[in-house]
Design goal:
Layout lengths: L8 H11 L2 H7 L1 H13 L11 H13 L3 H14 L4 H13 L3 H14 L4 H13 L3 H14 L4 H13 L3 H14 L4 H13 L3 H14 L5 H13 L2 H14 L4 H13 L3 H15 L3 H12 L4 H14 L4 H13 L3 H9 L8 H14 L3 H14 L4 H13 L3 H14 L4 H14 L2 H14 L4 H14 L3 H14 L4 H13 L3 H14 L4 H13 L3 H14 L3 H15 L4
Helix pairs in contact: 1-6, 4-5, 5-6, 6-7, 7-8, 8-9, 9-10, 10-11, 11-12, 12-13, 13-14, 14-15, 15-16, 16-17, 17-18, 17-19, 18-19, 19-20, 20-21, 21-22, 22-23, 23-24, 24-25, 24-26, 25-26, 26-27, 27-28, 28-29, 28-30, 29-30, 30-31, 31-32, 32-33, 33-34
Length: 582
């Protein structure tokens, strides 16, 4: 007995979610919906819900799907299809279930079957396009979307899907064709006109771009994006009056608009209207005290783009409106650091008050800045003073330990890190730093113990896996375990040159020189200027009796060595091979 089901609400909703095309679905399912309505009028008998009814298995599938039991839901849908193999709706539901389960190949098999029997079924083409797009098969996705549009051109969202695909590929010509067709079919599509404006702007056809953005605003006067696109066009053309008019228009509609106020202030500054700029910046600074979005927008507009010169103009103006603001001083410190003015950065960071959320970050930044100025002692003293205020802050103690490590005061580094672990006993980052300190201190067993603890706490920590493996290799101990540890690290960082070098060094220690050569050559290709990796490759060539190649890599290595003791060791190797110094 063939049963046609009640309205396809579930399929329609899901298809909307993956493709966003309500109008297309209605057209695609019109015939089947009519059949369903006819059947509903004819009978709703007990026979429908018996176990030999496809409707029974369909309902079971829906219930199981809602519970998250997708495998069982699919099994029930397949039983329904066995009882009603001609139902397009059931095939589409099953394809949708496979899509949701990310079993795209099986979904496509079902869709191909639907299309073979019903080549004009828009929904099948739409879902095929979405799956192909998900699989990053762009050409197939576009072909499916074009077919769906050919069958039913009145589908706004498919134009947008297609246009976005072409835009991602920077195929502006085809993207333009899509959006031109969209605004032809739907003249009121402000989105279509907006993207046409973007394409024309990229092509530097500013007159056409301006026309399209203005048309966008005619259709949707409340949009901000076209206004800022127009501003960019006016800036490129040097149309100062239009720039000023547009900012005034934005601020007339939204007097508190942060971006417009910042950009207009900077515009005034550049035009020499300093008082107007100062007034805007002061107002923004005062507003930032109660509205964190002001600082966020400043960071987004200037700091994230590394526009430090412009950022300094704006932040100084804002500070004149809120001279005690910790947030503004913190950001001013970041900007000063970006301009490589470390002393000024320190000055701003020191004005961040203890109650600020940025206080601890500022303290660490100050220490690093002192380090960059060669004033490690001052950095440490500053960090120690902050630690006294927050004696149980494991993060600050870890940084303090790192600074002691930098000046090779390993005893104090150990003390700071152990204090950090007392406050946070499961902090794998502190254990890692402690392991490094012990290694530099010459206490290999303690270093190994610390790295094992890191791996216990964080089994996927590639750096710890590599560190422990390399330590074993360097000691010539537990080489099989070292190899396994390093290979495990490479699972998480497959293209890491340092970990690759460690694996090559294990093979070297095992006497597998040809294997070591292959791995170390890859490591050098990943990090061409690391002195240790270059020296390792030289050592392997020496074992393979390729003395000229060994000499070449030793000479390359010494160019990048910073420590005198390492240079001395390399100098000795070079002398032995060439009979002369470097």
């Amino acid at each position: 007995m063939k049963i046609v089901f009640i309205k396809p609400i579930v399929f329609l909703a899901a298809l909307l979610a993956i493709g966003g095309c309500a109008s297309s679905n209605k057209g695609a399912l019109k015939q089947e919906a009519s059949e369903k309505e006819a059947v509903q009028k004819e009978t709703v008998s007990e026979e429908i819900v018996t176990r030999d009814s496809p409707y029974y298995y369909f309902i079971e599938a829906q219930l199981l799907q809602k519970r998250g039991a997708m495998a069982q839901a699919i099994a029930n849908l397949e039983k329904a299809i066995d009882l009603d193999p001609d139902s397009v709706y059931l095939q589409m539901e099953l394809a949708l279930f496979y899509f949701q389960k990310k079993d795209y190949d099986k979904a496509l098999v079902r869709l191909d079957g639907v299309i073979e029997k019903n080549p004009d079924y828009v929904g099948a083409w739409l879902m095929t396009g979405k799956i192909k797009q998900t699989q990053r098969q762009s050409a197939e996705a576009k072909a499916a979307y074009w077919k769906a549009l050919e069958l039913n051109p009145k589908q706004r969202n498919i134009y947008l899907l297609l246009g976005a695909l072409y835009m991602e590929e920077k195929d502006s010509d085809n993207a333009m064709k899509v959006y031109e067709q969209l605004v032809t079919v739907f003249p009121d599509s402000f989105i279509g006109h907006f993207f046409l404006g973007k394409i024309f702007a990229d092509k530097e056809d500013f007159k056409a771009a301006e026309r399209e953005f203005n048309r966008t605003l005619e259709l949707n006067p409340n949009l901000e994006e076209p206004r800022f696109e127009l501003l960019e066009i006016y800036r490129k053309q040097g149309q100062k009056e239009k720039i000023l008019s547009m900012y005034q228009d934005i601020l007339a509609k939204s007097p508190d608009h942060i971006q417009a106020s910042m950009e207009l202030g900077y515009f005034y500054h550049r035009e020499g209207e300093i008082e107007k700029a100062r007034a805007l910046f002061q107002e923004l600074g005062a507003r930032s005290v109660s509205n964190q979005n002001v600082v966020r927008k400043f960071v987004q507009l200037f700091v994230d783009k590394k526009m430090y010169a412009e950022a300094m103009v704006v932040i100084q103006g804002m500070l004149s409106g809120a001279p005690e603001s910790s947030d503004l001083h913190y950001v001013a410190g970041v900007v000063s650091d970006g301009k490589d003015d470390k002393e000024k950065a320190i000055m701003h960071f020191k004005k961040v008050r203890p109650e600020s959320n940025f206080y601890q970050n500022a303290a660490v930044q100050i220490a690093f800045l002192y380090q960059g100025l060669g004033k490690n002692d001052e950095g440490i003293e500053h960090l120690k003073a902050v630690v006294e205020k927050y004696p149980d802050n494991s993060q600050l103690l870890m940084y303090l330990g790192s600074f002691y490590e930098e000046i090779e005061d390993f005893k104090k580094a150990e003390e700071a890190l152990k204090r950090g672990l007392a406050a946070d006993p499961k902090n794998s980052k502190i254990f890692f730093r402690l392991g490094v300190v012990y290694d530099k201190w010459g206490n290999k067993p303690a270093s190994i113990t610390a790295m094992k603890k890191v791996i216990d706490l964080d089994p996927k920590n590639a750096n710890a896996l590599n560190y422990l493996g390399y330590t074993y290799a360097d000691l010539g101990q537990n080489l099989d375990e070292a190899e396994n540890l390093i290979k495990e690290a490479l699972k998480y960082k497959p293209d890491d040159g340092y970990i690759t070098d460690s694996l090559g060094w294990v093979y070297y220690k095992k006497g597998l020189y040809q294997k070591a050569l292959e791995v170390l050559e890859k490591a050098v290709s990943l990090i061409p200027d690391d002195p240790v990796i270059l020296e390792h490759l030289g050592d392997v060539y020496l074992k393979l009796n390729a003395k000229d190649k060994a000499l070449e890599y030793y000479q390359r290595s010494i160019l990048h060595q910073k420590k005198d003791k390492d240079k001395i060791n390399l100098e000795k190797k070079i002398q032995e091979l060439s009979g002369k110094g470097f």
